[in-house]
Amino acid sequence: MAKIKLLALEAKACFDYFNSNSNQDYNSPAFGLTLDSYPCYRGISSIAATGFALVAYIIGCERGWLDRGTLIRRVRGTLDSLLYRADHTKGFFYHFMDIKTGKRYKKSELSIIDTAIALAGAITAGEYFGGEIKEKAASLFNRVDWTWFRDKKNNRFYMGYTPEQGFSGWWDFYAEQLLMYILGAGSMTYPVPGDMFYSFVRYKRANSLDFIYSWFGSLFTHQYSHAFIDFRGRLDRYGVDWFDNSVRASLANRDYCIELGRKFKTLHERSWGLTPCQGPFGYQGRYGAGPSGIYDDEHIVDGTVPPSGALGSIVFTPDLSLEALNYYKGQTRLWGEYGLVDAYNLDIKQAWYADSYIGINKGITLLMAENYTSGLVWELFMKNEIVQRGLKVVGLSEDIKRHTA
User: Fold this and answer.
1) What is the three-state SS of 377-399?
2) Was domain 2-404 assigned CATH 2.40.50.90?
């Protein structure tokens, strides 16, 4: 019970991050956009963090953390900004935008995955509040031209686009992108084929926790789509249980940290979950655990641990994630204005604790905590007609044997 109360405190602190670090100026063209991180980079908003914020407001309403009327105005205003004022091309948003203007930040790319997270947040908000908000969420979704971001030659989505260089990269390896295929296949305006779900490489590395891994071995790749899509009891056409795959990935990440505990004192059975975060020398997007890449050499480990790693896996490894949270409770320097700070590292000359928070890390913590506690985000997102159509087109059937056993 004490651990559950501690989880509730962290969830409330995550909500406070979004409540305090989103543009609340109703006269601003960028109303509702959320800071990528705090307190650094104060002028930069993240479209993915904004998507998480839309769900945070639902959770805040359900928990009574802020009055419903205020939250409805917040959600409606955010959707209006995204619909009518924020920079976009064919419905896709820039990864980073100016939090005061809604314009593209410097040379940021149009990001399909970050747009997908924003759309998932809008869809979830529409299901919760209904009425005008659901209509606005549908309008936001229906203008997205998924076919534009598809490379027909290899049947894969491009990773990004800039006006200066055009499209770049492909989603050719497993990562956090499963959400994109469901949304794209479910579109009534610009649908893409359901077989795109099966067009990326699915590499496994033989060990006791055999699972499909991602390029950098980062744990968030096994979490983000699962924050919205309830994969429990579903198999894809290749027979893959993606929920079970994330369970295995989470356990493997923890085992990796235990194994490296002989080298790094920050890593052990209650301090695990290697994933991108702020490090002692700046943000590092390659933090992860083996296996990674082709030759198991794409991930970086320097002893830095973000609490969001273990907590973002709480639906996969509930007891182990709560044990980690309880351990973090004793690390007093890990706690700050918005709950657990982004990361810490005891393996440098002077122990380092971040003094910052990253929106997407607070977001995955909050959404997964709510799914673990009530299943609310799953329930709302999964009943949406776009999502239901996408699941059917992709072929994510329910595993009848599991339900009748």
Assistant:
1) HHHHHHCCHHHHHHHHHHCCEEC
2) no
CA–CA distance, 305 with 344 (Å, rounded to integer): 6
Q: What is the pLDDT of residues 109-146, one digit of tens each?
A: 999 999 999 999 999 999 999 999 999 999 999 999 99
DSSP state of 335: E
Distance, first Cα to last Cα, the chain: 31
**CB neighbours of residue 30 within 10 Å:** 23
d(CA 362, CA 307): 10
3-state secondary structure of 152: coil
CA atoms within 13 A on the CB side of 218: 22
Q: Is 283 exposed, middle or buried (0-12, 13-18, 19+ CB in 10 A)?
A: middle
Q: How far is CA 97 from CA 15, 33, 50, 263, 277, in A?
A: 21, 8, 11, 40, 20
Confidence bin at 403 (pLDDT 50/70/90)? very low
Q: What is the 3-state secondary structure (H, E, C) of 198-252?
A: HCCECCECCCCCCCECCCCCCHHHHCCHHHCCCCCCEECCCCCCHHHHHHHHHHH
Q: Which residues pair with 170 in a beta bridge?
A: 158
Are the C-beta atoms of residues 227 and 368 closer than 8 Å to each other? yes
- 210 within 8 A of 240, measured Cβ to Cβ: no
CA torsion sign, 156 to 179 to 50 to 279? negative
Q: pLDDT tens-digit profile of 139-192?
A: 999 999 999 999 999 999 999 999 999 999 999 999 999 999 999 999 999 999
Residues pairing with 92 in the sheet: 89
In whole angstroms, how far apart are CA 358 and each of 35, 37, 251, 302? 8, 4, 24, 19
Cβ neighbours of 95 (radius 10 Å): 21
| CA atoms of 224 and 230, how far apart (whole Å) | 11
pLDDT band at 404, cuts 50/70/90? very low
Domain ranges (residues) in the chain: 2-404
- For residues 337 and 331, give the distance between their C-alpha atoms in angstroms, rounded to a whole number: 15
Mean pLDDT (whole number) for 217-242: 97
271 - beta bridge partners?
A: 268
Which has the closest alpha carbon to 226: 381, 32, 399?
381
Max Cα separation, the chain?
57
